[in-house]
Amino acid sequence: MSNLETYKDLIREYSKNSYFKLTREPMKRLKYPFIVPGSVYKYQLWDWDSWLTDIAIRQIISDNGGAGEREFLECEKGCILNFLEHTDENGKMPIVIDGDHELFFMVTAKNAHKPCLAQHLAFILQQTDNDVSWISDKLGNLERFISWYRLTSKHEPTGLYYFLDDTAIGVDNDPSVFFRPDGCTASVYLNVLMYKELRAMAYIMEALGDEEKANAYDIEAAELKDAINEHLYDEKCGMYFSADLNLVPIDPNRRLHSGKPRHWDCLIMRIDSWAGFMALWAGIATPERAARVIEENMLNENTFFGEYGIRSLSRLEKMHANWQSNNPSCWLGPMWVNANYMCFRALLNYGYQEEAKALAETIVTVLGRDIEGCGEMHEYYHPDTGEGIHGQGFQSWNLLVNNMIAYLEERDAVKEF
């Protein structure tokens, strides 16, 4: 048996024996069953962690003949219901909810839940023949959640969205947002998620039979797609970047600017982050642009492409570092499995099957070796050695490796909305 087959077996066995440890019964402030990022977490429901972990667990359950699916469905639904339960009257939804007490991020962050709850719900509906009976009367809060982003975090001149501050942004110390002034970055990560979120809202409204709202969300998604392609794609580098919105307002009475005021509404920030590849994961890029992004950037060994996965930040960036850190976690170079999973999907979206296969085999090797060596997985890894850097015992979206294995074995692979 080859090492790859051995690693697949190790991963499958580990996943089968551990995925149920990521589910929790209702707990005080969390009225419904839910999913936690890993067995080391007690009662914390996190935003994009629960969404991506759900996709992974669905694959594991499918691989095991559907055993436990009915019980797990209640945890899937509970993730949605718990977040909607804690959405305030303005539509602000918490990033994390702790069943036992209030967490720092939930209390102090200006930011809200990343725009992925509608995607999570749409994914669940796809798995359950669009059964909306359990959620149809609670969708007002989800619509208010989208409105909260429109009202608080949308830059009207460009049509792009921005983070209000650098707290709990997901890709925690992304230099395009981290340690920068509040409200100044149109993050490519945030805008791609919002595009997918609007598409998911259209899907949900269609499942409800509300064609008018479905069409409105589709139009809004198309407008954001155009804005991303206009403002966040850089022809010079063949890459999607975040943009700086922190520009001096145009004042026609100011002598220095009166001769030729600026005709641009943002400035590209040429910081090479893996988040630029998300535009391909979401299908936003044209085939021509996608080819440049993949061939000149994603698969470039001098920048992103490491022997053990795609780096979270190009190694040519001055900020590049493979340090161990937590809260914020390090996204300055380490290989993250969720990021590599999205890159894997991006490659498949644009016909790069062989490259997607090679990347999937790499991730299987990294995680299989980790399980073989210490019996667990880590939160993120060194892209040049494959060694775990931080967070031994982390499961969460690392379990998406099972979805990659299903693809490699030409079986039905569960895919996100």
User: First CA to last CA: what distance?
Assistant: 35 Å
* Global structural class: mainly alpha
Tally of separate helices: 14
Low-confidence runs (pLDDT<50, min 5 residues)? none
| Total strand segments | 15
- How many strands, which pairing sense, and closed or not: the largest β-sheet? 3 strands, antiparallel
Order of helices and strands: HEEEHHEHHHEEEHHEEEHEHHEEHHEEH
Helix content: 40-55%
* Rg over C-alpha atoms, rounded to the nearest angstrom: 21 Å
Q: Looking at the structure, what is the overall shape?
A: globular
Structure description:
- There is one protein chain.
- Helix content is 45%, strand content 8%.
- With 417 residues, the protein is mainly α.
- The strands form seven sheets. Strands 7-10-11 form a three-stranded antiparallel β-sheet, with helices on one face. A two-stranded antiparallel ribbon has the order 1-2. Strands 3-4 form a two-stranded antiparallel sheet.
- The longest helix has 22 residues, at 353-374.
- The protein is globular, with a radius of gyration of 21 Å.
- The mean pLDDT is 95.
